[in-house]
Write a sequence for this structure.
């Protein structure tokens, strides 16, 4: 019964999505040698607008065109799903106040910098390549996410 609550549409969409993500990241790594984490894609994109040496590294400048296309593809794929294919059009709405969304985004950005990567980079690419640092980061992400959810729930905070 618990499985039905966790997966109201069944497991197939999640299984298919996981396989596609795994195949996509493996393809990128095998053809370019680059891990497909989202924070790296952001740094690469910043090489277009920032003269800072951090963003002007050869690995960013030489690969930035296809990385921007890849990032736009992620956004476009989500938009196509949300606007054309999603079974629930209400999935794009939230009752969360804008200041909380902004605050959460800032905290995620800080965490990405402190953790030297994002959840997709560590959770998909890092764990997939058996990186000890990524295992530690994913354990930290999960512990803090579970802890935060428990504290918020105990405090009775609502959107």
């Amino acid at each position: 019964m618990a499985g039905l609550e966790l997966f109201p549409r069944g497991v197939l969409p999640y299984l298919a999505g996981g396989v596609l993500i795994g195949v996509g990241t493996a393809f990128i790594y095998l053809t370019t040698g680059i891990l497909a984490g989202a924070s790296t894609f952001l740094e690469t994109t910043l090489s277009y607008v920032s003269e800072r040496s951090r963003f002007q590294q050869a690995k960013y400048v030489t690969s930035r065109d296809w990385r921007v296309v890849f990032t736009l593809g992620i956004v476009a794929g989500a938009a196509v799903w949300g606007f054309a294919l999603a079974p629930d059009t209400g999935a794009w709405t939230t009752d969360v106040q804008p200041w909380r969304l902004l605050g959460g985004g800032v905290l995620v950005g800080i965490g990405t910098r402190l953790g030297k990567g994002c959840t997709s980079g560590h959770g998909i690419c890092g764990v997939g390549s058996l990186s000890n640092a990524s295992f530690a980061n994913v354990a930290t992400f999960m512990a803090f996410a579970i802890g935060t959810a428990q504290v918020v729930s105990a405090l009775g905070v609502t959107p």
The first helix runs from residue 2 to 6. The helical segments are 2-6, 12-32, 38-46, 58-61, 64-85, 98-114, 119-128, 132-155. The chain is about 70% helix and 0% strand. The two ends are 27 Å apart (CA to CA).
